[in-house]
Amino acid sequence: MKLVSFYSLCAVLAIPALGFTLHGETATFPVLVAHRGLARNAPEDTLPAFATCLELGIGIELDIRTTKDGHLVVLHDDTLSRTTNGGNRSVRDLTLAELKQLDAGAWFLPSFAGTRLPTLEEVFAIVKERSRSKTLLALDIKNITEDGEKQLVALVEKFGLIGQSYAFSQNEACSRRLKKLNARFRVGQNVSRDSLEPEVKAGLLDVFMATFPPTAEQVKRLHQLGRLVVCNFGGETESRRDPKLWSAVRQAGIDGMISDYTLECQHHWRLESITQSNP
After folding, report:
1. How far is it between the farthest Cα atoms of the chain?
2. Which of 46, 44, 50, 45 shows the shortest CA–CA distance to 10?
3. Which positions are catalytic?
4. Euclidean distance between CA atoms 188 and 62, whole angstroms
5. Who's near 89: CB < 8 A, 6+ residues apart?
6. 12: pLDDT confidence band, cut at 50, 70 and 90?
7. Are 32 and 136 in contact (CB under 8 A)?
8. Which residue, 51, 94, 168, 204, could crosslink 188 as a Cys pair with Cβ 3.0–4.6 Å?
9. How much is the pTM?
10. How far is CA 177 from CA 22, 24, 116, 171, 174, in A?
């Protein structure tokens, strides 16, 4: 009941209608995407973190790995020691049943004790159940098998999330396999100022994850090519917590932004919008 009350409070505080923009549609704000869920406010890559994102109208960035018995689970590290009580063992060496015995919340706060590692299917189910508006799922492929790639595409299809998701961190061969499984499945990759043009010419990426603040001209050109622009500013460094940076990328017309400071940025954009509407 405590968690339900917290989520209800979040819903009251949420700003309305943060929608993923496609094909010339417009929105008040780019889609904010919480790095590993709200990792500064709840255990990262867990259902409590993701459920809160959904109540707040915030997108989700998450990490995918394959278990020993071939299931897709959500966890950032290869080893279990940092965010579970599983010790210095690899996800690849344990079955899903073994992983489900671990505690993935007590390390963060005692109130989260008993939180379990989620499967990717469990995450997609809660997305469909709790989304307040169109959201964005940034799927960081950490280590999955080729059978896992098939599972990934099948799950995205099953839950009707093709238009609201994309995968990244995979190598080119994996990207091409994913596109072969479903041509509409989006693939993305981090791009720097120097790699932007080569990636445009290569023509493989659907989502350009800018690790720098792009100009309005760069964003417009990518949109004209039918590509999406998501700034990847994940990380807790002070340079990622700069309101001037947040204002600049919003004004450039990006589609989304991955951040560890989504709540702060959401508040900043909201106040900025109010000020601009009432000069």
Report:
1. 59
2. 50
3. 35, 76
4. 14
5. 79, 80, 81
6. very low
7. no
8. 168
9. 0.89
10. 24, 28, 31, 10, 5
